[in-house]
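Example 3.2
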Amino acid sequence: MEELRATPSLVSGDWGPGLLMSEESIRRHVIGALRSRQTSLTTALQPLVNEQARMLVSEFGFDAQTVGKILQSQNTMLSVLSDRYDALDEAAHYSEIPFVELANDGRIVYSNAAFDKLIPGRRGAPFSGLFGSRAADVCMALRANHNTSLRADIQTDEAVRQVRVEIGPLRDEDGMQGNYALLLDQSAEQSRLDALQDGVLRTDLTGKIRFANERAVQVLGFSESELKEMSLSLVFGPEDEGATDPFAEWITEQTGFSSFVKLRPKDGRSVLARVSGTPYMEAPNSSAGLLVLFAPLAEDRARRELKTILAEHDDPQKIIEATLQVIGKVIPFEMSTFGVYNDLSDYWRAVTVFPRPSWEWSTRWFKVPPGVIDWLEQGKTWDNNLAAFVERLNPEEMDNPVSKAIIADEFESMLVLPIRKAGGRFGSSLALLSRKHKYTASDLRTLQNLGVEEILQAADAAMEHAQARALRKLKDDLNKAASARAIAELLAKGTTKCLGWEYVGVFRVDRRRSKFVLVAEHVKNDRNLLVKAPDRKAEYTQELSSGMLGSCLAERDILVVPDISDTERNYGFIKTAPDQRSAMTVPLFVNGKIELILDMESSELNAFRGPDRDAASGLAADCEQIFAARWHEAIEHALMDRIEQAAVIVDAVGTICHMNGAAENIFGQARDKKLASFGARNEDSMQLSECGIQHRLHIHLTIGDAPRTELTTLANREPLNDDYGHQLWLFTSLADQSRESDWGYLEETVTAVARETRAPLLMADGLLRGAASLLSKPDLMRNCAGLLEQAANHLLRADLTFERLSERLTVQQTPQEVPELFDVVDVLYHEVEGLPVEDRDAINLVDEIATRRPLWVKGWTKRLSFAFRSALSSLLLLRITPNDRLTVTIAERPPHHLSVSMRLPATSVDTLAPSAADPIEQSQHRARQMASIAIEAIRKAAEQHDGTLVELDGAGFEFNLPLCAQEAPV
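Structure, written as tokens:
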């Protein structure tokens, strides 16, 4: 290097023309200029170009223009090469990859900043001397005159680092064979090897260990630096005592090997292990040693067993217990637990305790303070002084019965494997407890390498999924429950299954009796938690103002009692079962009032701390939604079924989604069908498919199976004003309405007549019987006449009452049916033809209409038929002799009216006129009038058809009815 520094500098101007005449001087000039990094390649070569131009002028006599043309192509090529070289040189100099140039004798003549930082002050030193035991291999690579790659450990000021050395040929400034070398960091590869579950060792051809990953260090107990000074035979012994060193056989294998050995760890134990290896190749067809993987046989077998657990078991508890059994074959423990954290990781609950201790695990949730979380985060999750650990990090649990029992059972050491969930928070943890074994980092690493985290996470996820499925099923069952008792039984049984609580009772708030009534209860295992003994038939009740239930009712909130023996904070808890230790009550609201209370109890202390209250609150909210939906559904059904009309609810597109009983009688099983499909005509379907408020629509429906029946209805439509566009339709069958009205009127009339006429008739009956008894006593005849007069008065009162009530006949009520066109003459003839033969023969029918054609009237055929029939019958009753005839005249009168007159001969009327002096004749006349229908009913029927009825001097009637100008419907 000093020789190089003594050469003339281009920058200092020491170069003269004579110095650039030899090849050696030119090489030294260019290399020296470039290594100084004070100039570019173009600048370094410029003296050579100038010397060439000078020679062309002096030796050949060319002028400057000619020389420029001669050197133009050369100068362009040098410029391109210079740019590329300068860029690569800049990258090499400032790269983070250590780079060196080596002279022919192997000395470092140039190094970049990365190399100087890695190994400072080594310029001029032999390069191979940096690689310790592999110096000979490096020297051989330097002399190979081709690119070579090999792994080696390089000694830095801080530590020994593993690198890959890339060596290639590069002539030095003397023109001799030199080299360049790159040092590639192997920390990424080493990290990958450190992450392996197996131990990894790499040896050279002599069997000396050159590399050991972290797992190998952990299993063997030696440090990495100690292992690198050891031979493989010192840590690997043959499986059979007295056998030869296996390395000699392994190093000759070309494709790999697998065998069993006895490990010789630092603690002097002998551990049977499975080992496999392969030749370690640093170049094609060039083995540099062995790459060996090994694992203790117990761990290997454990990993194989763990891989089959998920396939062999479905129950999460079985999965966890099987996993713990396998772990026990590798890492010693006398008791283990697997538990879960709540969402905030401030409470922990044991899901599995294996094996079960002789004492009772009486606590459900344990408080987890921040100090414990920090301890888990740091990664050193083992402690060999449990009592001090609890006192230091979780003093609140020092007096916990479980903590006391663990310490009293002489457990001293603990190893914890925390398991994270998505997002990084702790979701669960596995803890191993031992009385004698002292846990170390090696045990934790072994536990991690077994791969139990994935299995336990799967078990935890399976439990969460099972709970979610059970909750969904419980909600579905509650929605479908047929009675309040069924709801209570589902809640009691389903809650214990979903949330893992030991006991759930359901109490009904009976305000009429001022009692809590136990409706249902369910226990998971411990029957000593049941309130009612199996043989007890009487119901269990409790006063509304007493106990924890009473406090829950008064405070209208969830109450939790961690320890029922704490009389100051147990809300007056009434102990009803021997194993009760902690409790929680949850009020369930229906329509704003507490109707049910869930009573959860446990044989464990602190059973309902932490997330159990949140779970109960969520369950209560779900139940209240379900109860509210059932409440509204019950009210809806009650109201819908009370509606006499056919009520139909359709969605926004007109699909039927709900009907009451009356609607089902009309439409049948029409749910999910389009309401418009029941329209008899296009206009009916159009109206049925519309929305918005509309009243008194006359809609014709076609119902039933083929041939379908047409039904005329009066419909109302209103929106429900919900968020989904539902509409309410109310249909009234006009025929049904008329029949119902008639039946209602008939029932009302009969009842009223019976009530109004019964008293006077009974009075008359009594008076007549009294009069009859006096006829046998001549001296009381005068009294008899008085009694008969009183009886007549009472009968007259009954007759007047009947006459008043008869005016309310059905025909007098407003018609609800749609009016129709009919031939009025046909109706009249039909009624005449329907009379008895003797009455029909007594009628003289005179038809004065010249041309017989239909005479249309718009109205109601049955009502006008009733009027004609009543008029004919009443007049025929007034005949005295069979020869008296009733004349019925049909005539057309202007303007477009029909006249129908019915008249008896005047002699009959005169004969019927009663004598004022004869009370018997007056009574007979009055009886005839009452036997016929009151004239007001006939007049009402005529007026309903826009016509009139005229009495003809007591001897007949005349109907005047307007005729329609329309043609008859086809």
